[in-house]
Amino acid sequence: MKTLILRTASNYMLPLLLVFSVFILLRGHYLPGGGFVGGLIASIAFVLHAFANGLGDTRKLLKFHPGFLMPAGLSVAFLSGISPIIFTGEPLMTGIWYPDSLPIVGNLGSALFFDIGVYLVVLGVTLTIIFSISESA
Amino acid sequence: MIQQLIFYPLIVQMLLAIVLMFVWSRIGWQRVISIVGSVLNLGVAVWLFISVWQNGTQAVQAGNWEAPFGITFVADTFAATLVLLTAIAGLAVSSFSAGSVISPRLKFGFFPIFHFLLLGLNGAFLTGDIFNLYVWFEIIIITSFVLLTIGGEKAQLEGAVKYFTLNVLASIVFLTAIAVLYGLTGSLNMADLASKVAAVENRTLVQVNALLFLVGFGIKSALFPLYFWLPASYHTPPSAVSAIFGGLLTKVGVYALIRVFTLIFEVDPFLENVLLAIAVLTLFSGAVGAIVQNNIRKIFSYLVICHIGYMIAGLGMMTEAAIAGAIFYIIHDIMVKTNLFMVSGVIYKIKANHNIKKLGDFYADHPKLSLLFAIPLFSLVGIPPLSGFWPKLSLISEGWNTENFAVIAAILFASFITLFVIVKLWGEVFWKTGAKLPEVRNFPYFNKLSKFRKTQMLAPIIFLAFVTLYLGFGAGNIQSLAERIAFELMDNQEYINTVLRK
Questions:
Q1: Which of B58, B97, B208, B232 is deepest in the core (most CB within 10 A)?
Q2: Cα four-point dihedral sign B422, B427, B431, B436
Q3: To probe the interface with B, which of A65, A90, A92 has the most B CB atoms within 10 Å?
């Protein structure tokens, strides 16, 4: 699959898809989208890059093992879950919201960080699975 | 922060699993973190138990959404006791795994998955929401499937496929039952369901729904005739994994059965008879299965099935004293079965064999270990004053009061067969002069291990043996605990009022 067209296209697609995945992630609070879909789209970006340029190049691009994203994402989600216990004394997973609305992001709250955690876990799991399958193939 | 004490067992296990994932390939660190974390978790569980014992049932709404709309976490004495037992068994098995499981297996994420399993168990005990219970069951199935298959031996995969197929089937039945229940009542909160189910006019559908729950949980707790996945899978993974499975996994199913049939559904005479018939058949078939086996772990697997029958018999009689007997039996069974599978692991490490026909000479070679192993073995039989005796006594006397003579006969039969099987095992493995077993190459024999590893394997057995002895000699305390739990289960008003804040 190492055609010139795909390789050239993938160089443009990678950042585009990543930005789109972040858009989907942020959109997810009130509209269809969210961490899970966003993570899948982000992993598609890297999978496409791996198809066009080979697995080695994608690994170099990532710089770390994608499996590392799983505990990282889990800890982000975990911290957002226990933050109400620590900060406001409310039960686990209660939403804490920043009072003012921000541009682009909208309302900022602990739910967003939970979604970011899901995003990272999904990205990590998908890339680990696909990388190990294509390595053994 | 103290009000959220109920979440702490969950938070500790989740935190442990995440930290362990960060050190995925550093086995040495994982061993230390897992054991230290399990000690911490035991502390939290004791704290929760004391708090519930002193202040009564507690409830917290996750996400601060008021019940019945949010997910409630409830700690009544039953849940707190089981969380405490999970913590004790978890600590024991964590130390035992650190000593006994070979490092190529540990490298596949044994410890993180193990703590996710404990997270699932704690969650299942503490949740007050029937759909959330389903989610915790899923966590338990997925993690236990991974633990079963780590190592990738042929026998393991075969057992795991059977295990997974039947348990997923159980989950589907359970999910269907939840869907029907939600369609009938429009609620998923167990305390809220208690009153809403009683108000449903279509009683037939409620009864069918109750039977669906019985089938779903029945597969998970290995009741007759749905237990075949258990003896097919429990003897395949490392003994540390069998220990946590044999001790706790089936008991989650029993916990769910007791919870659902004391809180949500009113048990009518028909259901009572079904439960009693299942209990008798489970006692009978598990006992008969145990006689014919020669593999130590298969014997224990069948005894796991057999002894589930006692608990269901207690539930089926549906009197306070009978349920107290069943609760006592659960407490006793979790400690003893966990310990027995660890014992079988040590025997395997010493002799490199599981077949009781080929084993022998154990008492002559290791007299001190044999005496240690005698404690869990004979507690299981229930020789007075060891722990198995007291719950059977209350079950039999309650069977007499409610005139369920078939149940008494089955209980006596199962106790007798258990005695026979354990004595046979004792004679074959410990007293018999066995043939010399061929040396297995590259096998991590017990005496080749470092002293530290040996301690890590034997300390949890000694620890659980002491717990078992306490259950036997301090039976008065455990009985009053079981009676308090039974009282709370039969008179569920406190549970409902705590959750719904009436």
A1: B97
A2: negative
A3: A92
Share of chain A above pLDDT 90, in %: 42
- With an 8 Å Cβ cutoff, are B18 and A78 in contact? yes
Interface check for B442 against chain A (CB to CB < 8 A): the answer is no
- With a cut of 90, say whether residue B501 has pLDDT above it: no
Q: What is the pTM (predicted TM-score) of this model?
A: 0.94
Domains in chain A: boundaries: 4-136
Using the predicted structure, report yes or no on whether residue B1 has a pLDDT greater than 70: no
Strand ranges in A1-137 using DSSP code E only, listed in sequence order: 97-102, 106-109
The CA radius of gyration of chain B, in Å to the nearest whole number, is: 22
CB of B467 closer than 8 Å to CB of B239: no
Chain B interface includes A109 (CB < 8 A): no
Cβ-based contacts of A97 with chain B (< 8 Å): none
Quickly count: other Cβ atoms within 10 Å of residue B144's Cβ: 27
Q: Where are the domains of chain B?
A: 1-246, 267-493
B7 touches chain A (CB under 8 A): yes
- Measured in angstroms, the CA of A13 and the nearest CA of chain B are apart by 31
Closest by Cα among B287, B391, B283, B284 to B336: B391
Please enumerate in sequence order all residues whose Cβ is within 8 A of that of A85, keeping only pairs 6 or more positions apart, or say none: A91, A92, B1, B4, B7
Contact A78 B4 (CB under 8 A): no
Give the closest residue to B264 by CA, choosing from B499, B10, B51, B9: B499
Number of residues in chain A? 137
Distances (CA, A) of B271 to A126, B219, B227, B309, B312: 46, 17, 20, 16, 12
Query: Per-residue pLDDT for B69 more than 70?
Result: yes
* Minimal C-alpha gap between A34 and chain B (Å): 19
> Closest approach of chain B CAs to the CA of A18, in angstroms?
25
- Can you give the pLDDT at residue A1? 58
Phi then psi for residue B226, to 5 deg, are -115, 25
The answer to whether A16 faces chain B, any CB pair under 8 Å, is no
Q: Write out chain B residues lying below 8 Å of A73, CB-based.
A: none
What's the half-sphere exposure (Cβ side, CA atoms, 13 Å) at A34?
9
